[in-house]
Each structure stands twice: as structure tokens, then as C-alpha cells.
Amino acid sequence: MSQIHAGSPRPSLTRQPSAATDVGDGSKPNDYLIWAILACLCPVWPINVVGLTFSVMSRNSLQQGNVDGARRLGQNAKILSIVSLVGGILIIVLTIAEFSASLLQFSVLHDPSEIILIC
């Protein structure tokens, strides 16, 4: 685990990917950045910001050569983006349904000409 670098008086503790993690299809792991950006448009702000952060961290890990870390962070970004998109769509649908129900209740209780004036 520890390595001694030239000119360094103490060993450096760095994580090196094991040989077993390099076995695979050899393709570049996906960072799901587009999905994370789209998820930021949904009203589930704490989750989608964390998903975007994981996506950027995945991209940085891949640029540093840590394929295993990039794959793991990319999967986290994917899960958080899906949760954000589903949660955001659910919130939007429920908000529209609530608004429609309150508008319908208003139209039943009041004269229809008042609705035109409000809109």
C-alpha cells in the first residue's frame, strides 16, 4: 500500500486500483453528467446537486486514471439523478393536480365569470 517516492522522507499512502478491477470490457465508465444536469432542473435540489457533484467527481477520477473510482462514482451519480428526476416529476404532477383541484373547487363555489377575471 505504501510507496516511497524519490525525494520524499516518508511513504505516501495512495490507493492503487487492483489488477482485478482492470478486468472488464475496457470501455470508459459513464459519468452521467447530462442526466445530472437535467436532474438539476427538477425541484429536488438537495439530491440533484449531490448527483451533479458525484458526476463531476467521476469525471475527475477518470482523468486521474482511477477507472474503478470513476465507475463507482458514476453509478452513484446515476442513482441520484434517477431519484431526482422521478421525485421532480412526481412533485410537478402533484402540484399541478393540487392547483387543478383548488381551481375546480373555486369554480364550483363562485360564479364562472369571476374565474375569467382572475386568469
UniProtKB/TrEMBL annotation:
Keywords: Membrane, Transmembrane, Transmembrane helix. Pfam families: CD225. This is Proline-rich transmembrane protein 2. InterPro entries: CD225/Dispanin, CD225/Dispanin_fam. Residues 1-19 have a biased composition (Polar residues). It is found in: Membrane. GO terms for cellular component: membrane. Its main location: membrane. The chain crosses the membrane at residues 32-56, 77-97. Belongs to the CD225/Dispanin family. Residues 1-25 are annotated as: Disordered.
